[in-house]
Design a protein that fits this description.
heterodimer, A: about 150 residues, mainly alpha, about 0% strand, B: about 170 residues, 9 helices, elongated
Chain lengths: ~150, ~170
Amino acid sequence: MAVALVSQLNESLWWIKRHTVDKELLLHEAMARLLSKAGSYAETYDNRKVSEALERYLDGRADKDESEWIEDILIESKLTLPDLRIRGFKDAAKYIKMVDDLIHRQHQTIRHLQRSIDSIDYKSRLIKRMDLELAALESKQSVKGALTLDDKSS
Amino acid sequence: MTTNPRRSLANRCCSLKSTGPRSADGKRASSQNSRKHGLNSAPDFESSLEYRALVDLIAEEGFSGFACADIAAGLLNYRRVMDAYYDTYTSPEPVDEFLRDANVKASNPIFSELLSPSGSEPRDVRDMAALFASMQRQERRKGGPISRRSADSHKLIRYQRNGIARLSRAVRQG
């Protein structure tokens, strides 16, 4: 029982980590969308291309062409990187709030599970369990005994 | 497979004229189109093998018969919600990249070419362009894949809340 509850608790922790990553991804998605809109249609109609270039640019892994491309779009849209982040946050605020709700839900789930684990009275359960096992062993023994008596009498 | 934008646009124009499925099988299949996660349908845990196995396992821990049934149903219900949550999260409504990124203004010649065999007027072409522009706005408003999966998962919060409350209550009362 405790194992089942702890595994649910573990799953909740995994979801919290996952949703925390999602918050960053949402911000990145919004920033890439802003850049796509700012650039000329022919160059930036492919959101994924812009998004990947921006990711490499922010990580410092972008090659010279990509860096220049991102900087050109930023100049074209009259934005600096912090401005882009702020505007991206503003655009993604609705979804970031949703992810915050999801994280909060997982926190509450953990609280519920903690209370459930805490409420199980292990001492009495252990004694009850031993009683049940003893009763099962006794009934098995009595059946065995009856069978041997039957064999002897026949 | 690469999609031809012209073909895709033609398919969309034709699909707007569709009046829906006609056969009984088609109607049965399309009746499930709006089914999202199935969490609103009443579950039947009692007849499942997992339920029996779970009840037996919990009974071995010394819980009473009623508590075992409650806890097993609570656990299975919570797992059902979390499985639906996982499915919703991993398969959000796909982004229609063609519609989202299409240049509607530049597609006007294609619209007129598609509509011209039926002797359409320029107004029909304008209407078609307006319709596509509105569909594009709706598509863009839904955001990218991460926004979509967050919004879809957010809809399942109340099921999670009820599921964990039911399980927790069953364990504490057991």
